[in-house]
């Protein structure tokens, strides 16, 4: 007895579903998906539909081809023949699961220096490592660059250099390095720069007051003055991160106090100044921190470890963009990036060894979207090739041949620039009589892709997949739709 654990995959790219019963497979429109019974070869209802006795279910989708066949020879139904799964006995459905619409996130890194981390006369060093498949493909090896704070002068009696000036100087040197320049850029927390205030009521003067709402997190304010319980003036205690213009943030500690974001921070150097119990945070570009911008330049402190203690943080973001070809010259063998650049920041001492006694380096790995359109189009082409639908590539005239053979219509069915949600249905077809004497099962997985941005289609396809689960449960096969937060 043997069991082969691989599965044959078939791909559907759905834009809608046929939720009503009684629709023939030939009436399904391009991209429309339905559950069909072989008793009538018509759809069953997605809501409450059941299968007739001794019948099988089929996943059927309307073809994306607009013409029947080349040379007007529609043998075996032609190109417009609907796309069908194998017959599915609900009793043998073994698993149903769905992925999440995970958005792509760039990797980030930051380096912070405290008020007493940069003594006058001592050079600070920062190392920035760039790793990952983009670096290996571009350079054939990982890369790094080192920046230093040399040539920053102190005034008479100054004890420490302003840490914001130090991190900006090191970052400017690293970003100018031609080896790693294609992979990184100055980061920006997208914190709150300016906002329109509605004072509310019931507030009192306070520091580091949290806010809620909006697309980001971490924005805090110092309430400087109040008028009859309403916030009159404030300063920014923490700019936060991840906000968008128009966000309405509610200030804690009272009622009705809001800040509507009108502008976001621009720049990668965050300066935090602490005077007593009051923290004020502001953001500058590296050029502004160095004093070389046309406007808005930062004025470095000559006593960053004095009454007002200054901390400087510089932010980096992975910024590599890979070469991508359009549909006209598309080739399934083209590379597409499936891994973000990895950025690792670290502090070094003057001998080049890691230094952990002052300053903090943080690194956040990036994340690729769960199912890229690049994956989907390749899966769809492979599935169509199993159906003997041609896809010509690699020849000088491939673009012309694809136009003749209508392969362009398959390419057009997938948006390669977006993210897709995937639904999977796995079932087996038992072989009860095998001439070889080996009992095994053919196993099939049907992957249904839906654009993450198409909320209506996702709702409808989810209902259809849940109907498949219900059919399996009605047949005595106790399964459930599997989901989690990781895939």
Q: What does the secondary structure layout of this molecule look like, with pairings?
A:
Layout lengths: L7 E6 L2 E2 L14 E6 L4 E2 L13 E5 L21 E2 L8 E6 L9 E6 L11 E7 L1 H7 L3 E6 L14 H13 L8 E3 L5 E7 L7 E7 L7 E8 L2 E9 L9 E4 L6 E7 L4 E7 L2 E7 L1 H5 L17 E11 L23 E7 L11 E5 L8 H14 L11 H8 L1 H6 L7 E11 L10 E11 L3 H20 L6 E2 L5
Parallel strand pairs: 1-24, 2-3, 7-25
Antiparallel strand pairs: 3-4, 3-5, 5-6, 7-23, 8-20, 8-22, 9-10, 9-21, 11-20, 12-17, 13-14, 13-16, 14-15, 16-17, 18-19, 18-20, 23-24
What would your notes on this structure say?
The chain is α+β, with helices and mostly antiparallel strands. Helices cover 15% and strands 32% of the residues. It contains seven helices and 25 strands. It has helices at 133-139, 163-175, 286-290, 373-386, 398-405, 407-412, 455-474, and strands at 8-13, 16-17, 32-37, 42-43, 57-61, 83-84, 93-98, 108-113, 125-131, 143-148, 184-186, 192-198, 206-212, 220-227, 230-238, 248-251, 258-264, 269-275, 278-284, 308-318, 342-348, 360-364, 420-430, 441-451, 481-482. Strands 8, 11, 18, 19, 20 and 22 form a six-stranded antiparallel β-sheet that branches. A hairpin with a 7-residue loop joins strand 13 (206-212) and strand 14. The longest helix is centred in the C-terminal third of the chain and has 20 residues, at 455-474. It is elongated, with a radius of gyration of 30 Å. The mean pLDDT is 90.
Query: Whole-number radius of gyration?
Result: 30 Å
Spans of 5+ residues with little confidence (pLDDT < 50)? none
Assess the beta-strand content as a share of residues.
Answer: 25-35%
Class based on secondary structure composition and strand pairing: alpha+beta
């Amino acid at each position: 007895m043997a069991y082969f654990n691989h599965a044959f995959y078939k791909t559907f790219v759905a834009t809608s579903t046929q939720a009503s019963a009684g629709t023939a497979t030939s009436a399904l429109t391009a991209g429309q998906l339905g559950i069909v019974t072989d008793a009538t070869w018509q759809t069953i209802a997605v809501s409450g539909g059941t299968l007739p006795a001794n019948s099988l279910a089929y996943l059927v989708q309307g073809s994306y081809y607009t013409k029947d066949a080349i040379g007007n020879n529609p043998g075996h139904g032609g190109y417009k023949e609907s796309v069908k799964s194998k017959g599915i006995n609900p009793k043998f459905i073994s698993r149903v699961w769905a992925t999440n619409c995970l958005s792509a996130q760039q990797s980030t890194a930051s380096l912070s220096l405290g008020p007493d981390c940069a003594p006058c006369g001592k050079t600070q060093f920062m190392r920035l490592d760039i790793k990952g498949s983009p670096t290996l493909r571009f350079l054939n090896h990982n890369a790094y660059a080192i920046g230093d704070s040399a040539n920053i002068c102190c005034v008479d009696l100054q004890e420490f250099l302003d840490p914001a000036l130090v991190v900006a100087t090191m970052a400017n040197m690293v970003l100018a390095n031609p080896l790693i320049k294609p992979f990184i850029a100055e980061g920006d927390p997208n914190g709150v720069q300016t906002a329109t205030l509605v004072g509310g009521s019931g507030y009192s003067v306070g520091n580091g007051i949290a806010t809620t709402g909006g697309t980001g997190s971490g924005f805090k304010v110092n309430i400087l003055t109040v008028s009859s319980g309403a916030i009159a003036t404030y300063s920014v205690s923490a700019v936060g991160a991840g906000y968008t213009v128009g966000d309405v943030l509610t200030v804690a500690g009272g009622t009705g106090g809001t800040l509507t974001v009108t502008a976001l921070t621009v720049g990668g150097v965050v300066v935090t100044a602490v005077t007593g119990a009051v923290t004020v945070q502001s953001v500058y570009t590296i050029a502004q921190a160095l004093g070389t911008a046309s406007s808005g330049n930062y004025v470095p402190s000559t006593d960053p470890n004095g009454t007002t203690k200054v901390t400087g943080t510089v932010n980096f973001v992975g910024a590599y963009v890979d070469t991508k070809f359009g549909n006209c010259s598309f080739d399934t063998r083209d590379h597409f990036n499936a891994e973000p650049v990895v950025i690792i920041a670290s502090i070094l001492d003057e001998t080049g060894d890691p230094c952990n006694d002052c300053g903090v380096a943080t690194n956040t790995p990036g994340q690729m979207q769960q199912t890229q359109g690049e994956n989907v189009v390749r899966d769809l082409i492979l599935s169509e090739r199993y159906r003997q639908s041609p896809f010509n590539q690699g020849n000088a005239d491939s673009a012309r041949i694809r136009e003749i053979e209508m392969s362009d219509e398959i390419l057009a069915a997938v948006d390669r620039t977006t993210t897709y949600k995937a639904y999977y249905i796995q079932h087996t077809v038992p072989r009860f009589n095998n001439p070889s004497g080996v009992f095994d099962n053919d196993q099939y997985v049907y992957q249904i892709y839906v654009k993450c941005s198409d909320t209506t289609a996702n709702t409808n396809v989810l209902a259809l997949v849940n109907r498949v689960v219900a059919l399996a449960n009605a047949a005595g096969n106790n399964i459930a739709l599997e989901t989690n937060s990781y895939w």
